[in-house]
Amino acid sequence: MRQRIIVCPIIENEGEYLLCRMAADRGVFPGQWALCGGGMEPGETIDAALRREIREELGEALEITDVRPWTFRDDTRCKTYADGTREELYMIYLIFDCISANRNIIFNEEFQEIAWASPAKIKEMDLNEATRVTFTQKGLI
Questions:
Q1: CA dist 61 to 11, 52, 56, 113, 121, Å?
Q2: DSSP code of 27?
Q3: Angle at CA 43, nearest 5°, toward 67 and 90?
Q4: Which residues, 6 or more positions from 68, have their beta carbon under 8 angstroms from its beta carbon?
Q5: Mean pLDDT, consecutive 10-residue segments, the chain of 141 residues?
Q6: Is 25 in a helix, a strand, or coil?
Q7: Which of 70, 88, 79, 80 is nearest to 134 (CA)?
Q8: C-alpha–C-alpha distance, residues 51 and 95, integer Å
Q9: Prediction pTM value
Q10: Neighbours of 16 (CB within 10 A)
Protein backbone atom coordinates (compact mmCIF):
# COMPACT_ATOMS: atom_id res chain seq x y z
CA MET A 1 0.00 0.00 0.00
CA ARG A 2 1.33 3.40 -0.99
CA GLN A 3 1.68 6.17 1.61
CA ARG A 4 0.76 9.82 0.93
CA ILE A 5 1.36 12.87 3.09
CA ILE A 6 -1.55 15.26 2.60
CA VAL A 7 -1.42 18.97 3.44
CA CYS A 8 -4.87 20.23 4.36
CA PRO A 9 -5.71 23.92 4.95
CA ILE A 10 -8.76 24.96 6.96
CA ILE A 11 -9.26 28.34 5.27
CA GLU A 12 -11.29 30.91 7.23
CA ASN A 13 -12.47 34.35 6.15
CA GLU A 14 -14.73 36.54 8.29
CA GLY A 15 -16.05 33.61 10.35
CA GLU A 16 -16.83 31.34 7.39
CA TYR A 17 -14.84 28.35 6.16
CA LEU A 18 -14.03 27.37 2.60
CA LEU A 19 -15.44 24.03 1.49
CA CYS A 20 -15.13 22.41 -1.92
CA ARG A 21 -17.54 19.90 -3.44
CA MET A 22 -15.40 17.17 -4.92
CA ALA A 23 -15.84 16.02 -8.52
CA ALA A 24 -18.43 13.25 -8.69
CA ASP A 25 -16.23 10.85 -10.67
CA ARG A 26 -12.88 10.82 -8.83
CA GLY A 27 -10.92 11.35 -5.66
CA VAL A 28 -11.19 9.85 -2.21
CA PHE A 29 -14.64 11.33 -1.46
CA PRO A 30 -16.48 11.80 -4.80
CA GLY A 31 -19.34 14.33 -4.76
CA GLN A 32 -19.01 15.30 -1.11
CA TRP A 33 -17.99 18.57 0.51
CA ALA A 34 -14.37 18.68 1.70
CA LEU A 35 -11.46 20.83 2.61
CA CYS A 36 -9.01 21.50 -0.21
CA GLY A 37 -5.46 20.18 -0.12
CA GLY A 38 -3.43 17.35 -1.51
CA GLY A 39 -0.26 15.33 -1.54
CA MET A 40 3.24 16.57 -1.00
CA GLU A 41 5.66 16.15 -3.90
CA PRO A 42 9.16 14.66 -3.46
CA GLY A 43 11.64 17.27 -2.23
CA GLU A 44 8.91 19.74 -1.26
CA THR A 45 8.73 21.40 2.15
CA ILE A 46 5.44 21.29 4.05
CA ASP A 47 4.91 25.05 3.61
CA ALA A 48 5.70 24.92 -0.11
CA ALA A 49 3.31 21.98 -0.59
CA LEU A 50 0.50 23.74 1.30
CA ARG A 51 0.87 26.95 -0.72
CA ARG A 52 1.17 25.02 -4.02
CA GLU A 53 -1.99 23.03 -3.32
CA ILE A 54 -3.91 26.21 -2.45
CA ARG A 55 -2.65 27.93 -5.62
CA GLU A 56 -3.34 24.91 -7.89
CA GLU A 57 -6.81 24.21 -6.54
CA LEU A 58 -8.08 27.71 -5.74
CA GLY A 59 -6.11 30.07 -8.00
CA GLU A 60 -3.48 32.76 -7.64
CA ALA A 61 -5.79 35.53 -6.34
CA LEU A 62 -6.71 33.95 -2.98
CA GLU A 63 -4.49 35.73 -0.47
CA ILE A 64 -3.54 33.61 2.55
CA THR A 65 -2.29 35.91 5.31
CA ASP A 66 -1.73 33.47 8.18
CA VAL A 67 -0.82 29.77 8.33
CA ARG A 68 -0.58 27.85 11.60
CA PRO A 69 -0.09 24.11 12.07
CA TRP A 70 -3.10 22.70 13.93
CA THR A 71 -3.02 18.89 14.10
CA PHE A 72 -2.33 15.68 12.21
CA ARG A 73 -4.24 12.45 11.64
CA ASP A 74 -3.90 9.28 9.57
CA ASP A 75 -6.16 6.69 7.98
CA THR A 76 -6.51 4.37 5.02
CA ARG A 77 -8.65 5.41 2.03
CA CYS A 78 -9.49 4.17 -1.44
CA LYS A 79 -8.90 6.76 -4.18
CA THR A 80 -10.65 6.66 -7.57
CA TYR A 81 -8.76 8.23 -10.48
CA ALA A 82 -10.27 10.00 -13.51
CA ASP A 83 -9.69 6.88 -15.65
CA GLY A 84 -11.73 4.78 -13.19
CA THR A 85 -8.83 2.92 -11.59
CA ARG A 86 -8.77 2.66 -7.79
CA GLU A 87 -5.95 2.52 -5.27
CA GLU A 88 -5.84 1.96 -1.51
CA LEU A 89 -3.66 4.58 0.22
CA TYR A 90 -2.33 5.09 3.73
CA MET A 91 -2.83 8.85 4.22
CA ILE A 92 -1.15 11.12 6.76
CA TYR A 93 -3.01 14.43 7.03
CA LEU A 94 -1.12 17.57 8.17
CA ILE A 95 -3.88 20.08 8.98
CA PHE A 96 -3.38 23.85 9.12
CA ASP A 97 -5.47 26.81 10.24
CA CYS A 98 -5.30 29.45 7.50
CA ILE A 99 -6.74 32.95 7.27
CA SER A 100 -7.53 34.51 3.90
CA ALA A 101 -7.70 38.24 3.23
CA ASN A 102 -10.21 37.77 0.40
CA ARG A 103 -12.52 35.26 -1.28
CA ASN A 104 -11.10 35.49 -4.80
CA ILE A 105 -11.18 31.90 -6.01
CA ILE A 106 -10.95 30.20 -9.38
CA PHE A 107 -11.24 26.49 -8.57
CA ASN A 108 -9.89 23.68 -10.75
CA GLU A 109 -11.49 20.53 -12.22
CA GLU A 110 -11.13 18.60 -8.97
CA PHE A 111 -14.20 20.43 -7.66
CA GLN A 112 -17.80 20.90 -8.78
CA GLU A 113 -18.31 24.03 -6.68
CA ILE A 114 -17.06 25.91 -3.64
CA ALA A 115 -18.83 27.55 -0.71
CA TRP A 116 -17.95 29.77 2.24
CA ALA A 117 -19.95 28.34 5.13
CA SER A 118 -20.64 29.33 8.71
CA PRO A 119 -20.45 26.60 11.37
CA ALA A 120 -24.28 26.47 11.40
CA LYS A 121 -24.37 25.86 7.63
CA ILE A 122 -21.50 23.35 7.78
CA LYS A 123 -23.59 21.15 10.10
CA GLU A 124 -26.17 20.73 7.30
CA MET A 125 -23.73 19.95 4.46
CA ASP A 126 -22.86 16.49 3.09
CA LEU A 127 -19.29 16.55 4.41
CA ASN A 128 -16.92 13.71 3.71
CA GLU A 129 -15.89 11.68 6.74
CA ALA A 130 -12.42 13.23 7.11
CA THR A 131 -13.79 16.80 6.97
CA ARG A 132 -16.56 15.96 9.44
CA VAL A 133 -13.96 14.57 11.87
CA THR A 134 -11.80 17.68 11.44
CA PHE A 135 -14.63 20.16 12.07
CA THR A 136 -15.85 18.09 15.04
CA GLN A 137 -12.35 18.11 16.56
CA LYS A 138 -12.22 21.90 16.08
CA GLY A 139 -15.56 22.23 17.88
CA LEU A 140 -17.28 23.80 14.85
CA ILE A 141 -19.92 21.08 14.50
A1: 14, 13, 11, 17, 25
A2: B
A3: 80
A4: 96, 97, 98
A5: 96 98 78 94 96 96 97 90 88 97 92 95 94 95 92
A6: coil
A7: 70
A8: 13
A9: 0.90
A10: 16
